[in-house]
Amino acid sequence: METCAICFEEIDVARMFSIDGCLHRYCISCMKQHVEVKLLSGIVAQCPHEDCKSEVNIDSYEQFLAPNLVAVMSQRIKESSTPVTEKVYCPYPKCSTLMSKKEVFEYTKTSYVGAGRSGARKCMKCHYYFCINCMVPWHYKMSCEEYKKSHPYPPKEDQLLNSLATTKKWRNCEKCNHMVELVEGCYHITCRCGYEFCYTCGAEWKNKKPTCSCPIWDERNIIHEQPGEVQAIIDE
């Protein structure tokens, strides 16, 4: 028997978990709760011991978590650690695997000659080819321009999103295509990819200055006091 340093229960040594790197040991029940809390926040769990920085190897999670939960959490961790401008998702609906642009290119060039020039990429999970430029299944005998001419209308799902974005007045980042919604603040938007633009018209900001003549802010987006207080501030 061994005492768990978290719950202080006497546990059979076969039910104790040892963390690689530091060899601190805790019962599987306590480790399960500790890891679940961390993974639900999208971060890798560290050893619960005070000031210990050893990470719990994600491959060892299967000792106390269901395999499907491990897969979901592995995806979340990868999403949080992959830069926005490097993220690429497989366009096949039944796959949608997250990859980085660099890793999928390295994976593709071993089986497809001219991948860098053509834009062809091979999904690392489903192994189907797709176009990194158009983000559609690979158009083998067509250039991107030819494909766009022959498919002038976006898929139904994209049409619905674009319609909602228009209604809600959301704005797309021109650099990474990330959808942005202004909740509060001024109209000078700095996307998470670093690109700066005007939320009203989409024009780029250069050297911290707008290239358009749109208003920079609206009182309704920057003042959050009670109505009476807002009026007093405006009057002043």
From TrEMBL:
GO BP term, example: protein ubiquitination
GO MF annotations in UniProt: ubiquitin protein ligase activity; zinc ion binding
Catalytic activity as recorded in UniProt: [E2 ubiquitin-conjugating enzyme]-S-ubiquitinyl-L-cysteine + [acceptor protein]-L-lysine = [E2 ubiquitin-conjugating enzyme]-L-cysteine + [acceptor protein]-N(6)-ubiquitinyl-L-lysine
Domain RING-type per the UniProt entry, residue ranges: 1-218, 4-48
Keyword Membrane: no
Pfam families cross-referenced by the UniProt entry: IBR, zf-C3HC4
UniProt keyword list: Metal-binding, Repeat, Transferase, Ubl conjugation pathway, Zinc, Zinc-finger
InterPro entries: E3_UB_ligase_RBR (IPR031127), IBR_dom (IPR002867), TRIAD_supradom (IPR044066), Znf_C3HC4_RING-type (IPR018957), Znf_RING (IPR001841), Znf_RING/FYVE/PHD (IPR013083), Znf_RING_CS (IPR017907)
Enzyme class, first EC level, given as a word: transferase
EC number: 2.3.2.31
Pathway field: Protein modification; protein ubiquitination
PROSITE patterns documented for this protein: TRIAD, ZF_RING_1, ZF_RING_2
Domain of life: Eukaryota
Cofactor(s) required for function per UniProt: Zn(2+)
UniProt xrefs under PANTHER family: RBR FAMILY RING FINGER AND IBR DOMAIN-CONTAINING
Function, as annotated: Might act as an E3 ubiquitin-protein ligase, or as part of E3 complex, which accepts ubiquitin from specific E2 ubiquitin-conjugating enzymes and then transfers it to substrates.
Similarity remark: Belongs to the RBR family. Ariadne subfamily.
Name of the featured protein: RBR-type E3 ubiquitin transferase
Species: Rubus argutus (Southern blackberry)
Lineage: Eukaryota, Viridiplantae, Streptophyta, Embryophyta, Tracheophyta
